[in-house]
Amino acid sequence: MAIDLPTARRLWRLLEPLHAVTYFSDETREALSAAGYRGFWMGYFAARAAPLGPVGPEIVTALFYNFAPAHVAKAIPDAWDFAPPETALQVRQEAAVATLSRMLGDDAADAIDRVVAVLFPVAQNADLGGRALFAANSALPWPTDRVGALWHAATLLREHRGDGHVAALTTAGISGREAGVLHAIANATPRSVLETSRQYSEAEWESLTARLADRGLVELSGAITPAGRALKAEIENTTDRLAAPAYARLSDSAVEDLTTSLMELTKVVVASGEIPSQTPIGLDLDDVG
Prior knowledge:
Elements: H1 5-24, H2 26-35, H3 39-49, H4 57-64, H5 69-73, H6 79-82, H7 85-104, H8 109-125, H9 132-138, H10 146-171, H11 176-187, H12 191-198, H13 202-214, H14 226-243, H15 252-271
């Protein structure tokens, strides 16, 4: 049975923190550094791109969408000279398992098993078409341990939704770099969050704001216009619409049970305080739950 769009968005909000530990935990940073990657961003790009193989910066820039090409090129392909994609895959998995195991503890085993039992067929049957990052992760073997399977399932459905979000932005005519500015203005996300994480210079930010203003989407003062808010809502609704079919085989009761079990796990991860309350991808952890 098809789920409605608010449910699709809520499931993403509950899954995202389980995946996102791979970007923010001490275990991940230390493990990627020990593997040989130089600095946070080389480790980030290497770990997230690793399912694609030893790709170049053009492919990473295209699929990740909102990073500056020069930012990507500082890390890729040099990362593969320090450690190959196979190493990044192993390291990111082991570090994510270590982090989630530490956060969730032994008492979460039943909830984890319930989530994985539902999400395994969801991820296995989700459409690969046009979803390169999801497809690349889908080609990886499922972990045999419960925490690894939980993180892998969250990662698969996160990248599935992300690929759809890129499609929605492209259809709306919003470039990757414009997307960050539009998001910050529409959601009142502190500009510094995007400037730091996506390396916008002041000149680029002002240029992109002017481009969006020429389309009537924002004011030069930095305020969103009605047209801009409508387009942002359309992009998010399209993203939800593209994500929802992955869950189409679930009954209403299965969706309810999945939501309840995810809530149990995600609340613990959010309560750890290790993930920033406002993330560059638009998740406000204060809204989780």
